[in-house]
Predict the structure.
Amino acid sequence: WYCRSCWAAWYGTQPPAARLVRAPAPRRPSQGRTGSADNTSKDVPWPSPWAVPRAEEPHHGERPQAAAAAAASRLAAAAGEPPEALLELCAEVQRLVPWLHCEDMARVACAFASSAAAAAPGSAAACRRLLQAFLAATAKASQACHCSAWAAPASELQMLGLAHGNAHIEEHLAEVLAQLAQHRDAALAAEEIWVLLTAKVAEPRLFTALEGLELETAPPDAIAALVCAAAHVVASGVELGGLPVRLARAAGRIVHYLPAPTLARLAEALASFGALSAEALAALAEAVLAHGLSKAFSTEDVCEVAVSCASAVAAGAVPAGPSGAGEGISVEDLLADFCVQALEEVSARTKDDRYPPLLVPGARVSLRVAVGRARRASAGVLQEFALHLGRWRVWLDQGMPVDAREEELELLDGGERPALCCWDCWRLTDALYCVGEGDGDGAQLCASCWRQRYSRGPAPGEAVDVRRQPVRGTRGDLDAGDGGVSGREAARLCSSLALVALARGRPPARRASPCFQDITGAAARLRRRAQEEKPFEGPSRMSNRDGVGPDAPDVPVLCVNLDRSPLRLAGMQREGVRCGLRARRFPATDGRHRVVRRSPVQPYQRRLTEFALRWDESRPALGLALTAERERHFVGYVGSWLSHSRAARQAVEEGSPFVVIMEDDQVLSPDFNAVVQEVIDRAGDSLDVVILGSLDWRMRSLQYAQRRKVMQLRLPCPGAARSGEERHVAELNGFEPPLHEEKTYFLYSIGSRAMGGDDYMSTGCCGVWGYLVSRRGLQKMQRSMKFMWESFDDVLQAELQGNNRFTAELGQRRLWAVWPPVVTSDGKWPSQNSGEDLDMGRQALAVSPHASFRDGSLQAPCARFCLGPDALLPPAVVASGLAEPTLALAATSALLWSPVEEVWAYAQSSWRRLFDQRAGAGAGFELRTQMQLRLHVDRHFFDVATEGLTWSWTLLRAAFLLGLCAPSPVVLRADPPEGPPMHLQPLSVRILAVDSPQLAYCPDAWFRDLADAAEDVSIEAVGEAARTLQGIPTRDLAAELWQQLPRATLRQVGVQLVHSPPEDLPPPAAGRRGLSFFANVTAPSPGLVKAICTQSRQGVSVVVTGRRLLPLLDFLAKLSRVRGTVPRLAFAGANPFGSCLDEGRSSTSCDEVTEAPSPGAWAWLRGLQQRPELNGRQCFVVRELSGSRWQVRVSLDGGLLSDLDVLAGNLCVGWPQPWPPGPWVYGPQLEVSAFWRAAAALQSGEALEQGMKELASARPPATNAYWLGLQPTP
């Protein structure tokens, strides 16, 4: 979206009227009801901090991988045996499919195909079910139609949907449906529907809009995209009525006009329609043959078209009439014959590893003809294929994109490109020159960048030998020399031929027999090469044959390593030899090599870097770019994501049912082999992803693991105990949680708090140091991780454990971890995503979060003060107000929360939303994270934390409600429910009344958030408030914390004392908005009312707070008697940001229903006979001693702390209450007019309305508990 002037600057013309978009009028948060009237569904009490996952039943067989291979061999040999034996073997193999290698699947399928004529009806059905299970287990789940331009709107739709619920999704759907109904354009429909499907919004209503489309006149590429979209929804079990029939017929008419890359995806889509699409598939098979199997299609595409044709035959009800290919050739015959031709083509590729040079992303091409403004012979790099357009996106060397048809492009250099890029400009080039170690960082530069750096040309002796490598599309999932067919492709192709043979009751043509042998032989060679050659030979070598342990699992163990990181690889090779691994190096993707256009602007987030991406790869989105500080970091994140995805795909293409993927800076446990094998044996049929060592220490702690245990393993873990980090934090907390001893390894569920996850204890990232992935787990990752809205490990954790409509299609998701961890890091390598290891190298001390804590904040003295119970034990309230320990803790916590950002400050309307937002606001310390966790498990700490923040957030929320704000420059495609983002204008805050000297204690803390969120703010204490605060000593906690935490974002916020009376103050300066604050009013005096009226006449808004509601009603009554114009009441009621620190908390009765004491709980003492003066005092439960005796900590007279040994019967532990409460629990939401009626009733001595009575008694007295906001009357 551009304004008129920017459009003219960009395009050189004035914008056409048809492109005009009416911007919505700015909206402020709602003001019509009480201050909490604009809450959303997020303002509900927090759930229990410890979610208990469902326990899983382990597999009880011994070595199921070996059992699966043996059963498959028996089944292949018994394919022609009596039905009873065959049925039993089929059932056994189907049960073991999760452990079955693709080579074994291919051999079973070949046996079924050869004996199809002899199969009895009962056994044939069992064989078909088994073959269908093979195809389901080996299918790709990637999105068929993808485009980089869709990542941004899809990501934004998900973000707003997660933040604001289904209402936003429904609103967006309604807009799309209205647009489709108005335009009835197939191309527009295809793009809009696929954007929604990319965001995982698959609504059947989307396809009702297609009923009115004229498919006969629609563009062929749009029809193909719509067929794929309908198939995407049908595959998830949604009924679309007669639409698939219409789409299949339309597809049959246009297949001959479609480019080759579209046909394979279209075939898969048509196959999901079953026999309804048989005729369309027959026409598609003819189109594929017309293009030429041997020159236009990858092996994967050939196999997928064959699988689709076979699925149509196996579905039955194939039309018996002629196909159109010639007299006497039925549709079924044509489909079956195509499967045989595909088999022959793939068989030929296994013999000489020939592979046609195809147009694939990353390859260089030139234009055969002029396309748009691009001239003929212009050269560039392919970015991606847009199926909905039927065109390739090409980024020309001139920096201009162009969309061209396949026939308009010519492949350059035989599909090869240089293997290295310049370190400055990132261009892949044949000529690079190495900077000497004495002159720089060892970088390799192209001639142009060399001249820019040295003002001279490079010398011949400085040249680097740059090899060239082919760009082979999906063959990038395998290594050179792996053969012409993958294990997965062999299993799928052989299974499809077997399905056809069983459906027709006769084996394939005789010429297919040697082809079966070639393909199964190729799969066997690839399997042997993956397990017996790659780990020990060539560039992927990481292990010694003689050193492999006897318990090494029979699955690939891949170590992801960049070519530019040989030192990391050397360290991992030593680890592999030490632990007896059968591991091999996996060449990681250097994100720079995928760049087709660098961002032309700074900051680069305004126009993201463009990458060459295949149809089955995820697309980068803005969220990932916002995570990365610089463009090279963003490119590194993309490279990391692609590397991990490619590694998993390579193992599955080789045929393995499982794969272990590791990063190259890890330390391994000697039990690594045994643990991986035990996990596969016991959980192979149920696992998706198992983290072998979590990144964040909290998520690999014994407490977290035991709380979320899902399966106990049999392998002993001698000496396993709490980590040093866990013990240190327990010491800070003042208690150790009760944990039982673990004698064997076990699996536990990793939670998430992103994507709707409710596991608040999963504050960290699970990481991808080392993890085990199953075939089914990879399918779920492909289905759900469509775009890169964060780093790979964060998205993996959120997608596999999030709880929302966007992850519901995955069904049951299992992201597990093993305890004790068998993979960890010593933290001495910086992140290779950003390339910092190139110039930093291995460090003497840990520099990353991996070895221990990510920083020293938990070793600082303030950590013990913030996390321990000592500051909460003395009474919170004394005669002069809040006690000093309570004030100090409130101020310290207020200073340590993550900084406020204006992009989200306007949307906060309750404590729940504020603390949830701050949990993901970044800029975190370890101490901050522990404080966030303590909010959920310690109600007292939460109460004190709100006391520290109530001053800033009362003023912030009031300023937004009173309209002291302006639209933010942030532009979204759709408005959130709160309206467009707003930011505060420069503020002049005047405190005119305050009931205690608390504000003088540490103004840096009380007003820190206000100063962060407002563009410019000044704070003055005027008149009576200045006299109240004068002479009160101020504590400079910010300076104290700076000494302990130098990286903390702290600022000094001064409160200027002005002794002039309010009526003598001038209006706010030009360009500033005024806000006057009367804090905790107890008895409104005539002077107070006069001051408020004076402020109103000066155009200043006013917010008045009280610890109780009645003084505010009394104030309104006095205000109503003022002659002349009075300010307008904008809002009133319970303050959503009032402090939760109840002044009467310490007087809680000890007669309430109680629960058993536990370490870390708060209790009240009762029934003490030797120390009766302590009865009724609050204490902190430290630990259980023996029998029924407990050690507790209590505050004595004078504030001294003492530990006591008491009986369990002397402790009253109240049932935990949910918190923070949503604002509506503070009484009913009342109209503003109700407060004027209540004020009149109070003035005349009448009774208050029931709703007002409930509101007045809804919450106990506390700082800023109730409020009202007044606006100047125009």
Observations:
- Residues 1161-1243 form a domain with the SH3 type barrels. fold (CATH 2.30.30).
- Residues 286 and 715 are 56 Å apart (CA to CA).
